[in-house]
Design brief:
The chain has ten helices and no strands. By secondary structure, the protein is an all-alpha fold.
Length: 239
Amino acid sequence: MTTLALGPSWLDPDYLIGTFGLIGVLVIVFAESGLLIGFFLPGDSLLFTTGLLVTSGTLKSPLWLVCTLVALAAIIGDQVGYLFGRKVGPSLFKRPDSKLFKQENVEKAHEFFEKYGPKSLVLARFVPVVRTFTPIIAGVSRMNYRSFIIFNVIGGTLWGVGVTLLGAALGKIEFVHKNIEMILIAIVLISVLPIAFEFLRARSKSKKAARTTDGAAGAAVSEAPGGAPGAPRGRHAKR
């Protein structure tokens, strides 16, 4: 159905599903959700294509079963990532770069987690690469386990079920079938929107805070005795 232009042919969702079936989908979702080696896997486009193939009858499994298993694979994957992070701890940040591991990916996920806290587990689900490392960073940071489970379940369900259902719904439209590559590329771009929205909101808040600080500083200077700093005052002013 596709010859996806986003990477090598063996990362084409249609190829992966056609070769490995539903089991392959679940393994990939699990790996991308919490294993270090899974960050390059096509999670969003894979789930969308899975829903589309269920609707078209190519994938012979009930949609409700597929959604349930995908959500479970995503939740369990994050669980493994969290436990790995707790066990490895700070040593993860000292690990040297390799072909499959880049320190910058860990640092980005750490900044993302520190900035957005527990809700990062939900937001990160929709951001490629970041979703792989965020549960690991949550473990490194020793996030409260109960909170982790709650946000893990919410994020895994929204992402796994939501993207799969989106593919199933749009798979009934002929235009989608004829332009599947364009649709998959659009999904990758749209997946960045949540983090872009949060970034812009945080940037707006920081600008407002800066203007407030500058305004307070200016008011303090204008109210100081003698006006601006360094202005001559008193009977020695004309010396």
